[in-house]
Specification:
Blueprint: E1 2-5, H1 7-23, E2 26-34, E3 42-50, E4 53-62, E5 65-72, H2 76-84, E6 87-94, E7 97-102, E8 110-115, H3 140-145, H4 160-176, E9 186-191, H5 197-208, E10 214-220, H6 223-235, E11 241-245, E12 258-265, H7 268-278, E13 283-289, H8 311-332, E14 335-341, E15 352-358, H9 364-378, H10 384-388
Parallel strand pairs: 9-10, 9-12, 10-11, 12-13
Antiparallel strand pairs: 1-8, 2-3, 2-6, 3-4, 4-5, 6-7, 7-8, 13-15, 14-15
Amino acid sequence: MKRIRGDAALSSFRDALAESVKTGTLAKLVFGGPVDASSPKNVTARLVDVKGGTRLQIVEKSPGRDKTSNVDLADAAAALDANLSRYRHADLFTTAGTWRLEQREKQPWNLVHEPAEVRAAPSRSHDREKQHRIGGVDDTPWLMAFGLVSPDGKPTADGKDKLVQIRRFVEILDHLLTDAPRTAPIRVVDMGCGKGHLAVATAVWLARSGFAGVDVVGVELRPALVDGANALVRKFAIPGVRFVAGTIADAPLEGADVVIALHACDTATDDAFARAVAVNARLIVGSPCCHKQVRPQLQAPPGLVSAMRHGILLDRQAELLTDALRADLLGAAGYAARVFEWVATEHTGRNVMIAAERSDVVDRDKSRADALELATTWHIGQQRLAEALGVTLRTGTPAAS
């Protein structure tokens, strides 16, 4: 292993990158740790063969959306160099070794180079078959026990939608945890975990991702589901995951890095988010449903009164406003929050996800002001997360229910 610091580190990394592109030995390049919240979560690059020849495929990844471009090799250096100012670290993987370039705040660049035995170059196919993080041969036994796949690993009729959700969730989590140090253990709490599909999949993926230690806790109110999930974990010797009976209010969140609350009904989502903020979780992920609290309070602003005469549109507006308000309130608490569609509606109608990462660059004052403006515009005087976080909304006159 070789270490280089300062300007020499940056220069050496650029040289190694340029050489890997020139010689075709580049396997993958990953930029992570965005300097500001406006940048994509991470950027990856690899060589692909297209009709016009070999190109550098650059993918800007954010939860819920990816932006892909194929760059001529002559322009590759400039395209990649532009990202060095937007990210705190970059990992270069080639057929012969790895380079990790990192710059902490107010510190010089640091480069670690680790040679490796020469490996075969990866496929350059532009249309590679999608490789799922969950669902390979090793996963078939426990996925069968959940009723999600048949013995040949193919999704069952009843399990295909759940399997799509699990795979997509793990993919999103992979993006969100790009910057999480693999040298440290990670603790995840899944509140309202049901039968435990997602908690088990998360533990399996985290272990494969190289974290030093994995502790995934599934919390479920129904003891029978808890017993069943623990029995499955023991049967298939799945490490790093356990299940406990309890509520969101008494879930063991101390030391949690990631808090998950998928499909928690109505204000249960707010309770989960508030508890996650209270323990300073690194990442909060939720997929809300049953938006009941805000709807009776809504009074449409001028110009939208006629649209809100229709009950279905009022329902959808209540969902939109509730989740937008939650995102702003999380921002006021120091979290960079995104709201996006995480899976197609054909797999679940509850397909809106809120992902919030603890951030030093989020503008708390602006987020708080945005929340207050939103509440005032629609006459929202009460909202559970606002109350839990100590944010007093400007009370409007509730509409008749």
